[in-house]
Amino acid sequence: MSAPTASVTAPGWRHVYSGKVRDLFVPEETAPDARPAALLVVASDRVSAFDHVLEPGIHGKGELLTTLSRWWFHQLSGVPNHLITETDALPPVPEELAGRSMVVRSLDMFPIECVVRGYLSGSGWKEYQATQSVCGIALPAGLHDGDRLPEPIYTPAYKAPLGEHDENISFERTVELVGQGDAAALRDLSLDIYRRAATIAEARGVILADTKFEFGRDPETGAITLADEVLTSDSSRYWDASAYDSGERTASFDKQIVRNWLAANWDQTGTPPTLPHEIVEQTVLRYRELLERLTGTHPL
Ligand code: PZK
Fold first, then answer.
1. Which site from 25, 76, 267, 293 is most exposed, i.e. has the minimal number of CB atoms within 10 Å?
2. 215 alpha carbon to ligand 1 midpoint, in Å?
């Protein structure tokens, strides 16, 4: 399958891949089989839910999530991450993309989505209902959708090839995939980062219900390095703590507005309907509010 055309171009950078909501570029001069000197990850305003990219986009989303991701990388001092500063050796980042892009080191990525859940929701809740466990971790009986777990759990998923669904796997399966040492390191690092982030969020009235990390190995240092976007609302479920405390169990920040509207207005066959303006507007406001609550700064 060839890479779909990105909606953006960047002089000096060659488009290599587009995910649902982001586009990936390498320096133009990168030889066909060489490791790129860096990657340019560009976040778009596209929004996806139930495996579809929706229309219209959410204006400003790419920049808000990039700002949030950078802020989290900064909070997570001591955790090696893939961000690099621009150098003369790399093509410059076009000014119009600067706010929604990151120049990152090209890592050897682990084929594992490192998911941590502090609360039971989404696929975790589904699996619990069927088996009373999640990814092979037995849980107490009688839990409800949205309940806080006795302690955060690591529920990895196998990164499926393009177009296929990620598959929840056991820790033992991750050992088979990457070896005991790296599997344990990915788990411990993921749980540690989740705890740190959840504590920071909680102090700001926000619950970090769950999140997904991706790691790679830095080929130069050998260090396991935090990659991708981190702790954004595309990779995490954030809930408003006061709403949660008054018994609310589904209305999470930002993306849930889209998910809820779609669930009520679409039978999930064929092409999803166009989002109404008020849903788009509410969603932009919630993305902004999340960034403001967490970082304490007022986004534009
Ligand atoms: C990498 N993706 C997912 C991201 C997309 C797709 N530091 C890295 N080194 C090597 N590979 C990746 C990263 C990162 N981050 C990430 N695919 C490869 C992805 C952005 C846009 F279209």
1. 267
2. 10
Q: How far is the CA of 18 from the centre of ligand 1 (A)?
A: 10
Mean pLDDT of the chain: 94
pLDDT at position 112 over 70: yes
Average pLDDT over residues 151-167: 89
Return the residue whose CA atom lies nearest to atom 3 of ligand 1. 228
For a substitution probing ligand 1, which of 1, 24, 212, 229 has the most ligand atoms within 8 Å of its CB?
24
CA of 279 to the centre of ligand 1 (A): 29
Query: Which of 13, 17, 31 minimizes the C-alpha distance to 103?
Result: 13
- Residue 17 C-alpha to ligand 1 middle, in angstroms? 9
In this structure, the residues whose C-beta lies within 6 A of any atom of ligand 1 are 17-19, 22-24, 39, 41, 82, 104-107, 109, 216, 227-228
Of the pLDDT bands very low, low, confident and very high (cuts 50, 70, 90), residue 2 is: very low
| Average pLDDT value for residue range 100-104 | 98
- Protein residue whose Cα sits closest to atom 6 of ligand 1: 19
Cα(241) to centroid of ligand 1, in Å? 32
Q: Is the pLDDT of residue 298 over 80?
A: no
